[in-house]
Amino acid sequence: MTEETPGFDEQPDVPSGGADTPDATEPKAASPSPEEGAAAPAGDVTDQTVALTAQLDQVRTALGERTADLQRLQAEYQNYRRRVERDRVAVKEIAVANLLTEVLPVLDDVGRAREHGELTGGFKSVAESLETVVAKMGLQQFGKEGEPFDPTIHEALMHSYAPDVTETTCVAILQPGYRFGERTIRPARVAVAEPQPGAQTVKGGEGDEASDAADAVDKDSGGPDEG
């Protein structure tokens, strides 16, 4: 008995494409993207908008508060700088004024030596150098004969009456005054003269005589009848 050998023309069974077999050539359906998903409800969008608006308002409020704080700090710093600068200038002026006050007796000696003709030689050069230095530092001398007496800058050491003055006048400068800037370091020590009281009395007498003359004229003319 012979065995049957399969021939070359017989092909093995190949599964045919049925309903259960996916077709390799058929394109796959694309899955929906998140953007193409279902739209969010209108209520959720409104709530998100309200929340974002509230957060934006909070941020704006915080920014305004921080800006105000920064401006306040900047103003306080500028005021502090001005106070420090003002105090620095004031301290410097006080120190210079104190130094110049200590030099005033030396300047008085120089002035007396100049009046007596003793300011000569090397002493003259030293004195002139000292006066130049204190002038550069801002020291100013004041007080002249013939100017009206001012109690805020003058100190009267002598008093007299004079017929040729119409107000209290400085007739002699005993010691010059000195000022530094707006600060009076030492008032000028002066002798003052006032108008003579007799001049006012004479004027008053002339007035009385004129009044008496007017009364006499009234009497001579009969004057008003007395009731």
TrEMBL record:
SUPFAM superfamilies: Coiled-coil domain of nucleotide exchange factor GrpE, Head domain of nucleotide exchange factor GrpE. InterPro entries: GrpE, GrpE_CC, GrpE_head. Residues 1-12 have a biased composition (Acidic residues). Residues 1-45, 192-227 are annotated as: Disordered. Keywords: Chaperone, Coiled coil, Cytoplasm, Stress response. PROSITE patterns: GRPE (PS01071). The keyword rRNA-binding does not apply. It is found in: Cytoplasm. Its main location: cytoplasm. It comes from the Bacteria. GO terms for biological process: protein folding. GO terms for cellular component: cytoplasm. Participates actively in the response to hyperosmotic and heat shock by preventing the aggregation of stress-denatured proteins, in association with DnaK and GrpE. It is the nucleotide exchange factor for DnaK and may function as a thermosensor. Unfolded proteins bind initially to DnaJ; upon interaction with the DnaJ-bound protein, DnaK hydrolyzes its bound ATP, resulting in the formation of a stable complex. GrpE releases ADP from DnaK; ATP binding to DnaK triggers the release of the substrate protein, thus completing the reaction cycle. This is Protein GrpE. The lineage of its organism: Bacteria, Bacillati, Actinomycetota, Actinomycetes, Kitasatosporales.
